[in-house]
Amino acid sequence: MGHGWEGVVLKLMRGKDYEFTVTGVEQITEHYRRVSCTDGGMLAATGVHPTMWVRLWFDDNGRPHQRAYTLVEPDPATGTFHLEFALHDGCASRWARAARPGDRIQATVQGTGFTLPHPPPGHLLAVGDCASLPAVNSLLAALPGTPAQVWLETQHDTDAELPVGPDDGSCRVRRVARRRGGADLVAEVRSALTAMTPAELADAYLWFTCDTATTRALAQLARKELGLARGQLHALGYWRP
Ligand SMILES: Cc1cc2nc3c(=O)[nH]c(=O)nc-3n(C[C@H](O)[C@H](O)[C@H](O)COP(=O)(O)OP(=O)(O)OC[C@H]3O[C@@H](n4cnc5c(N)ncnc54)[C@H](O)[C@@H]3O)c2cc1C
Fold first, then answer.
1. 122-149 per-position pLDDT tens digit
2. pLDDT class of 12 with cuts at 50, 70, 90
3. What is the mean pLDDT of the chain?
4. Contact (Cβ atoms closer than 8 angstroms) between residue 107 and residue 92
5. CATH topology for 123-235?
6. Which CATH architecture has domain 4-109?
7. CA separation (Å) from 181 to 21, 50, 153?
8. CB 139, CB 90: distance < 8 Å
9. Is the pLDDT confidence value at 103 over 80?
10. In sequence order, what DSSP letters do the residues of the chain get, joined into one string?
11. What residue owns the CA closest to ligand 1's atom 47?
12. What are the start and end residues of each CATH 3.40.50.80 domain in the chain?
């Protein structure tokens, strides 16, 4: 399968192509599936960084369909990682549901990159959902011991079973059911952030990775209403509602 015009653009942007092979699958919950892969030489060439993601090329009835997925526990020494899929009705989810050892999928590395805040923040405030859970967990693992508050927007009862952060007491997790297209989550985060003192906010690093509309609303809250500095905040919409 060719990669169409998106593939041409990514090539111009120096995207590097790889092929992954599925080595195992694990159904974590009814709506969340882990697919283990070998990397086709990628990690040795690219190195790894927290929250690293790749562009996977799915086949949508013969048309290329490119979507981003986060690497879970990438290991350059063994050339392995996992992908974790929050399952819904989509082409990428269909591929994950059917994935079996030996399946192959093409990937392009372009656009990923994340540098941990320096100096390290006094605390971390992360807002995400099951699509960004791998990234949130990667971020938490990269800042061990940093006190963290995570809001995880959930869509299914079984999302309560998904592990968030380390269980060393450094991370508080609040699961918020998705209602009104994410507006309940935004309201809850707003009341928590506006209750914080300026000193507490100044010492925080904020990570917002929800659907595009929710992420935009949260970023506006942080930047425009609370006046937080650009370097204190990472905001990236993970899916279009
Ligand atoms: C940097 C980055 C990293 C990402 N990492 C991961 C990851 O590790 N794991 C992961 O599961 N997702 C991840 N995502 C999100 C994933 O790329 C999107 O959810 C993507 O749209 C899924 O593609 P699809 O082909 O299944 O559905 P699409 O064809 O894009 O959409 C089909 C339908 O499903 C809906 N939809 C799409 N995503 C979701 C969702 N998460 N929940 C509910 N409805 C949805 C759409 O609104 C649409 O109606 C990441 C996104 C980014 C930007």
1. 999 999 999 999 999 999 999 999 999 9
2. confident
3. 95
4. no
5. Rossmann fold (3.40.50)
6. Beta Barrel (2.40)
7. 36, 28, 11
8. no
9. yes
10. ---HHHHHHHHHTT-EEEEEEEEEEEEEETTEEEEEEE-TTHHHHH---TT-EEEEEEEETTEEEEEEEE-EEEETTTTEEEEEEE--SSHHHHHHHH--TT-EEEEEE-S------SSPPSEEEEEEETTTHHHHHHHHHHSTT--EEEEEEESSGGGGGS--S-SSSSEEEEEEE--GGGHHHHHHHHHHHHTS-HHHHHTEEEEEESBHHHHHHHHHIIIIIS---GGGEEE---B--
11. 241
12. 123-235
* CA-closest residue to ligand 1 atom 44: 88
Residue 10 binned pLDDT confidence (cut-offs 50, 70, 90): confident
**Which atom of ligand 1 is least distant from the CA of 83?**
8
The protein residue whose alpha carbon is closest to atom 18 in ligand 1 is 239
pLDDT in tens, 161-204: 999 999 899 999 999 999 999 999 999 999 999 999 999 999 99
Q: Would you say the CB of residue 53 lies under 6 angstroms from ligand 1?
A: yes
Identify the residue whose C-alpha is closest to ligand 1 atom 7. Answer: 69
Measure the CA angle with vertex 133, ends 130 and 139; round to 5°: 165
Least confident of 5-9, 86-90, 184-188, 213-217: 5-9
Q: What span, in angstroms and rounded, lies between the C-alpha atoms of 144 and 141? A: 6
Is pLDDT at 230 greater than 90 in this prediction? no
Burial class of residue 204, CB neighbours in 10 A (0-12, 13-18, 19+) = buried
- Please report the pLDDT score of residue 174 as a whole number: 97
